[in-house]
Design a protein that fits this description.
Blueprint lengths: L7 E6 L5 E7 L21 H14 L1 E11 L2 E12 L2 E7 L2 H14 L4 H83 L5 H26 L5 E3 H16 L6 E7 L3 E3 H21 L7 E10 L2 E8 L16 H12 L3 E5 L4 E8 L4
Parallel strand pairs: 7-9
Antiparallel strand pairs: 1-2, 1-5, 3-4, 4-5, 6-8, 9-10, 10-12, 11-12
Helix pairs in contact: 2-3, 3-4, 4-6, 5-6, 6-7
InterPro entries: HATPase_C_sf, HATPase_dom, His_kinase_dom, Sig_transdc_His_kin_sub2_dim/P
Keywords: Coiled coil, Kinase, Transferase
Protein name: Sensor histidine kinase
């Protein structure tokens, strides 16, 4: 680097640090004046430190890379300063950066052979400083390389584990689907056996009991069928389920569709399996009761089913405009197996049941999602 390109200065001072001669000044610092003590040209905050700097030079013959604040063109700058003792005089060299100080003193060494040995010590210091920095940087790069390799290996291992987990989840889903499929098949077998057994019964009341049990098995089988056909193994589309169940029961119990209508008002709602099975059985009982008992002797009317969610609460309503629920019958304390199931299963899903006897019969069941 040419000396003219170095932003630096060189001062020759007496034994007490007073400037004797300005050897070099490429910074254009106005405060450099002969006869002025070196500490006095610095910022007030650096004065005490500069006095220690002069003292150290006297004690150790040379000091290297001290930082001082210097007022320069209306602002403070940091200068890197070194000094050495030559023939009872103090030589002071400074620059804005460590590199500039290094190159400046190297040039000064070529100019003044008398100061060569002392300057070599300073150069050696800066050279060692630079080598030390290079060594530190090399260590940092080596450590970064090691950490990068560890991270790469960890990412590979994580990818491998994710692939394994994906396979395990797929296998788990297949097993769960198979379980739902087999449960559905077993329930349908039970339903078929009940149907076959009912053919050997003579009285209609016993046949009706078998038919109700058969429908209960079908209502549960329908849920398991929905689950093994669904991508979601924990929840089912309850609108589709209610629609299928209600229409199956409608075809079973309503012999004349022109006399009794089926009205559905179902929101698109998914239900957890833990609530779906008891709710399906409740629906089966309430729909069956309306279709069997609400319209005797050719009476016309309609069975209405609505289901939806309001905030965090599910609301199921099954109603008819038929002859109404018997006034002398307490639905919470009845011997009817169907109503006992409705009450027990409503408690199972932590729900509430209400009966409205005005204009027919309307059961309202409210419950929240299980676990909330």
């Amino acid at each position: 680097m040419p000396q003219s390109a170095v932003e630096a200065f060189g001062l020759s001072c007496d034994f007490n640090g007073k400037i004797i001669e300005i050897l070099y000044d490429n910074l254009g610092i106005d405060s450099f004046k002969t006869g002025k003590p070196f500490p006095n040209i610095l910022d007030e905050g650096s004065t005490e430190k500069a006095l220690d700097f002069i003292k150290k030079i006297k004690e150790e013959d040379a000091v290297h890379d001290w930082e001082f604040n210097l007022g320069f063109r209306g602002k403070l700058i940091i200068i890197h300063v070194s000094g050495l003792l030559v023939n009872h005089n103090i030589l002071i060299f400074g620059a804005k950066t460590v590199d500039d100080a290094f190159y400046f003193m190297e040039n000064m060494a070529r100019i003044n052979n008398e100061q060569t040995n002392a300057l070599r010590g300073v150069i050696k210091y800066f050279t060692a400083h630079l080598h030390e920095q290079e060594a530190k940087e090399s260590q940092i790069y080596a450590e970064l390389g090691r950490l990068n390799n560890e991270l790469t290996n960890a990412q590979r291992e994580l990818t491998k584990k994710n692939i394994q987990l994906t396979k395990l989840n797929q296998q788990k889903e297949m097993l769960i689907k198979e379980v739902h499929h087999r449960v559905k098949n077993n329930l349908m077998i039970i339903s078929s056996l009940l149907n076959l057994q009912s053919n050997y019964l003579k009285d209609e009341e016993s046949k009706e009991i078998f038919k109700e049990s058969q429908n209960r098995a079908k209502s549960m089988a329908l849920i398991h069928e929905r689950l093994y056909r669904s991508a979601d193994l924990k929840n089912i589309d309850f609108k589709e389920y209610i629609t299928t169940l209600a229409n199956d029961l409608y075809r079973t119990y309503v012999k004349d569709p022109s006399r009794v209508a089926l009205e559905l008002n179902i929101q698109d709602v998914n239900i957890d399996i833990n609530a779906a099975i008891p709710l399906g059985l409740i629906l089966n009982e309430l729909i069956t009761n309306s279709m069997k008992h609400a319209f005797p002797n050719g009476k016309d009317g309609a069975v209405s089913i609505s289901f939806g969610k309001n905030d965090d609460e599910f609301i199921l309503k099954v109603s008819d405009d038929g002859i109404g629920f018997p006034s002398d019958l307490d639905y919470t304390k009845t011997n009817s197996l169907g109503m006992q199931l409705v009450n027990s299963l409503t408690n199972q899903i932590n729900g509430k049941i209400e009966l409205d006897k005005d204009h027919g019969t309307k059961f309202t069941i409210t419950f929240k999602e299980l676990g909330l």
